[in-house]
């Protein structure tokens, strides 16, 4: 596996995609949702220009996030689009047959979390799981339901400890592709995971500010002593309430459990995106709280 040439790797999010002309050759996109209208982004402003810029160079887009625009691409062979309920994680959608059908490619553009990086590694490996249980780890980590293996947990904590480190992301993909041949290969991930311990301490301190109104948990994270883990903070709120809202100086994020049945998009009036996690600008705090209180407080 190590003899195989690596593709050009680039990372994106639904709201922030690379410029299509900077991506060489034929392109595979993995675990990146179509942009929703939440937070000032939209499919028309972000996703569509990227699609049009790639044109025929887009050879496959594989994703598992809900979006109303999926139906417009249902008959386009370049797309494999599922809902989160149909596919809780992206790697499980990637098979040996799929990779063979797509054929040659030069670039992978993927989400920078464990789910996206594991999907990229699996694609490079020709649709073969990076290690036994990797698909299950991606599912547990992406849904925050179930318990990942020790290896999956190590990788996830490393990425959350250094959430903006593209070098660590690239190293993780290589490690997943080539396998862990000795324990020393895990040292960079262990070191990055230690930074997560500091983030957790700050997150727990901020969590003490949670206010609970019926089934709604609200936390102000504006004043803090360092980086905090927003996913962890939201999960703490969900331990006592159906819906958690965290806001800081720039962003308001609302989340419910993956299996809660709550549709935040419908409640907040947005199109596309994850029904159980929505982020908007801070200026939308009052309007967001009003809508949530009508339903949950």
Structural shape: globular
Number of domains: 2
**Biggest sheet, strands in spatial order?**
1-5-2-3-4
- Give the topology string: H per helix, E per strand: EEHEEHEHHHHHEEHEEHEH
Overall pLDDT metric: 94
Cα-based radius of gyration, to the nearest Å: 19 Å
* DSSP strand tally: 10
Distance between the termini: 54 Å
Strand content: 15-25%
Plain-language structure description:
The longest helix is centred in the middle third of the chain and has 21 residues, at 187-207. The mean pLDDT is 94. The chain has helices at residues 43-54, 96-102, 114-124, 134-143, 150-161, 166-178, 187-207, 230-238, 264-268, 285-296; strands at residues 8-11, 27-30, 58-63, 79-81, 107-110, 211-213, 216-220, 243-247, 251-256, 277-281. It contains 10 helices and 10 strands. Helices cover 38% and strands 15% of the residues. It is globular, with a radius of gyration of 19 Å. The strands form 2 sheets. It has a 5-stranded parallel β-sheet, with helices on one face. With 297 residues, the protein is an alpha/beta fold. Helix 5 (150-161) crosses helix 7 and helix 7 packs across helix 8. A hairpin with a 3-residue loop joins strand 8 (243-247) and strand 9. It folds into 2 domains: 8-191, no CATH class; 208-296, Diaminopimelate Epimerase, Chain A, domain 1 (Roll).
Gist?
By secondary structure, this protein is of the alpha/beta class.
Strand and helix layout:
Layout: E1 8-11, E2 27-30, H1 43-54, E3 58-63, E4 79-81, H2 96-102, E5 107-110, H3 114-124, H4 134-143, H5 150-161, H6 166-178, H7 187-207, E6 211-213, E7 216-220, H8 230-238, E8 243-247, E9 251-256, H9 264-268, E10 277-281, H10 285-296
Parallel strand pairs: 1-5, 2-3, 2-5, 3-4, 7-8
Antiparallel strand pairs: 6-7, 8-9, 9-10
Helix pairs in contact: 3-6, 5-7, 7-8
């Amino acid at each position: 596996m190590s003899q195989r040439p690596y593709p050009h790797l680039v990372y994106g999010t639904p709201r922030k995609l690379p410029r299509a002309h900077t991506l060489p050759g034929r392109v595979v996109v993995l675990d990146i949702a179509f942009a929703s209208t939440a937070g000032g982004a939209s499919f028309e402003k972000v996703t569509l220009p990227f699609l049009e810029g790639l044109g025929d160079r887009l050879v496959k887009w594989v994703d598992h996030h809900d979006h109303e625009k999926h139906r417009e691409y249902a008959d386009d062979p370049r797309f494999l689009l599922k809902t989160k309920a149909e596919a809780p994680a992206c790697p499980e959608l990637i098979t040996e047959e799929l990779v063979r059908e797509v054929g040659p490619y030069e670039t992978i553009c993927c989400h920078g979390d464990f789910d996206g990086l594991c999907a990229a590694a699996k694609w490079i490996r020709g649709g073969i799981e990076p290690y036994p249980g990797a698909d299950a780890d991606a599912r547990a980590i992406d849904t925050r339901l179930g318990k990942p293996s020790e290896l999956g947990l190590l990788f996830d904590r490393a990425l959350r400890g250094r959430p903006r480190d593209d070098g660590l992301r690239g190293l993780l993909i290589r490690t997943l592709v080539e396998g862990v041949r000795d324990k020393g290969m895990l040292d960079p991930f262990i070191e990055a995971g230690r930074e997560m311990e500091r983030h957790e301490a700050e997150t727990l301190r901020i969590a003490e500010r949670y206010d609970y109104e019926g089934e709604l948990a609200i936390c102000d994270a504006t004043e803090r002593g360092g980086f905090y883990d927003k996913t962890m903070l939201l999960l703490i709120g969900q331990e006592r309430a159906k819906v958690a809202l965290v806001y800081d100086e720039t962003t308001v994020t609302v989340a419910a459990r993956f299996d809660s049945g709550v549709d935040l998009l419908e409640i907040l009036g947005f199109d596309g995106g994850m029904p159980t996690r929505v982020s908007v600008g801070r200026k939308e705090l009052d309007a967001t709280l009003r809508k949530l209180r009508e339903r949950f407080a």
